[in-house]
Amino acid sequence: MTAAPPVLWQFRVSHFNEKVRWALDWKGIPHVRRSLLPALHVPRILWLTGQKSVPVLVLDGKAIADSTSIIATLERLRPEPSLYPPEGPARRRALDLEELFDEELGPHVRRMVFHALLPHTDYAAALMTVGESPFTRRMYRAAFPLIRVVMKLDMRIDADSAARSRARVESALDRIAAEWQPSGYLVGDRFTVADLTAAALLFPIVWPPEFPYAPPTPFPEPAERLRQTLRRHPACDWVADMYRRHRGQSSMEIAA
Description:
Blueprint: E1 7-10, H1 15-26, E2 31-35, H2 42-49, E3 56-59, E4 62-65, H3 67-77, H4 89-104, H5 106-117, H6 121-128, H7 134-155, H8 159-179, H9 193-201, H10 203-206, H11 221-231, H12 234-246, E5 253-255
Parallel strand pairs: 1-2, 2-5
Antiparallel strand pairs: 1-3, 3-4
Helix pairs in contact: 1-3, 1-9, 4-9, 5-8, 6-7, 9-12
């Protein structure tokens, strides 16, 4: 009997979810994607894991939360092609950079970008319902003023916190540029979890064409101005290069 494929509970337009999608696709692991809507996802994910964050991967009946834990599990499940360098200093460095970017980049990209997007009700609701039916999109748009309040409270989004997060994002971009090796990668001479993490978490600034879900366009003017300003950093060209060379198109998705 063939084992059931893993099920990824996700937001389509989310950088931590993109980190896990990329790892699944990189390893060629067939999987089912079940997409949820921000704020409305909480009951389902609480029931699965006892916490409220996605991504969550259900593998052999076990729900695994947190992108780092999911990738560690995938490395054990399918070691090749590996995202971890061999045991030793290179592996420690790759895992340290993954943790650094998860903590110092991921939450701050999210807060900074949402601060620019959430006031634009029509656009923000459309972005979060990419791929949904017209009926679902209309209902989510109607509920969005309340959803926006919940999201801002949950992520502590205001002008001051967004400004602090922008400074942290700029610092992380500088760190990527400083870690960039002659090989073009952050660790050694090949693509690792460090590269994948940094590139995936920065997709909302770069929006590379290889990202699997196309956003509504045009972006609201404040968000586009922010994006274009940060896009001038050399590290964003590196992100685009990582996507171009290593993201590809997912041929492994069984269901959306």
